[in-house]
Fold this sequence. Notes:
By secondary structure, this protein is an alpha/beta fold. It has helices at 50-59, 74-85, 110-119, 122-126, 166-169, 180-189, 237-241, 309-319, 325-332, 387-405, 410-442, 447-461, 464-467; strands at residues 39-40, 63-70, 91-93, 105-108, 135-139, 146-147, 150-154, 160-164, 176-179, 196-197, 202-207, 213-217, 222-230, 248-260, 271-275, 279-287, 290-298, 340-346, 358-363, 366-372.
Amino acid sequence: MASSISSSALLLRPRPPPLLRRAGRLRRSSKPYFTLSPIFASSSSSSTTAPLMKKEREKEKEKEEEVVIVGGGIAGLATALALRRLGVAAAVLEQGASLRSGGTSLTLSTNGWRVLDVLGVADELRAQFLQIQGFCFSIREAIPEIKPKRLVMRSQDGRELRSFRFEDEAPGQEVRAVERRVLLETLAGKLPPNTISFSSRLRSIAWQGKDGTLLELDDGRQVLAKIVIGCDGVNSPIAKWMGFPEPKYVGHCAFRGLGQYPEGQPYESKVNYIYGRGLRAGFVPVSPTKVYWFICFNSQSPGPRTTDPSALKKEALDLVQTWPQELLDIMRNTPDDTVVKTPLVDRWLWPGLSPPPVAAALNGSSSAVAVVVGDAWHPMTPNLGQGACCALEDAVVLAGKLAPALTGSRGAVVAALGEYAQERWARVFPLTARASLVGSLLQWEDPIVCAFRNEVMIPRLVRLGPFLEHTNFECELLEPIASN
């Protein structure tokens, strides 16, 4: 993915100008995570791309937009819908020819459902997906004993390790596994027609001084935007353009799939986790006819990319061929073409070292602004089930900051986005680190350490209430902004 940027449009400076000193401070600390510094670009920009862009604009008329969202995934569609509910129109550029049908299922906890409630789509989704009653932890040879509304963990020799239920230890917790495809279709269905422009792959991005930011697409179309919101996923070209490093591979990969039971699936509504040495798996009912499963395994490298779906499914089955029959049955009931393999990655947003998620080029009262959201900014491993939830949170926080600022000056927009960045960093950095730590602990291979995990850590140290405390996210209602 080619991209270009003027060297004068970078944004990290040691001291903030007065414009931004009120923005960008953590609520819990007086020390800012980063300092935003707008660049006051002259009309005679030194960017080497400017003459080329000018010539190309003469060949093809640009489409001008106030707000452009790059990426039509969960973060992009949720952001567009949140802005829409606040009276702000946004164009969405999606590189695919249609909504993404790839992926299987994702788990949404209480914080994700609170956002979906605010977006007005939660009840429609609740009607399609089962509510999870709790968790069941076991090790490979264990046979979990199920008591009425109680989840029991047993060791290899049959000893009970732990039993709990949401109702007792985490009252009010709402957890459901949701098909990614259905979630995207539901969000998109609430947007006005033609909001999403499909087959719109980004080729390059460049500041255009006071005019905005120029997005050039693979098919030659050009979009000139005042505000660019990068929701373009883990391998985000927008994030790369803003100076973010590539996400880091964490040392394990995951297989995922969706078992299908047209006549009805037989499993209880709980998340089932099974632990081995350097290998773990799990499954959870999604709906009356579908069951989501995963396998996470250690690997020094992501390995070659396999495109043969039957080979992927065979590779996954070979990893757990001696594991509980329930898991194997679910995997065998999974269509080959729905099995996916993903290397797990994350990006730690270290204070003072990571680039800001907001970039601005100012020229008098005009400016171009870019910001990243969701996986484009803070990819995290799925060990806490918070990737999609945090993307949804980002969307409503960003919309709540940005919409009222649009009625003011460009400086107000930059300041509002700085507030978004600081507020969200305080939330996502600890979650990214915690998810990585949990994954490392659960992927242990040493038999002594695994014994400690099975006999001490899980049954005696883990408490469901504190473990799920991160799902307590308060989501404000999105009230339309009155125009002046």
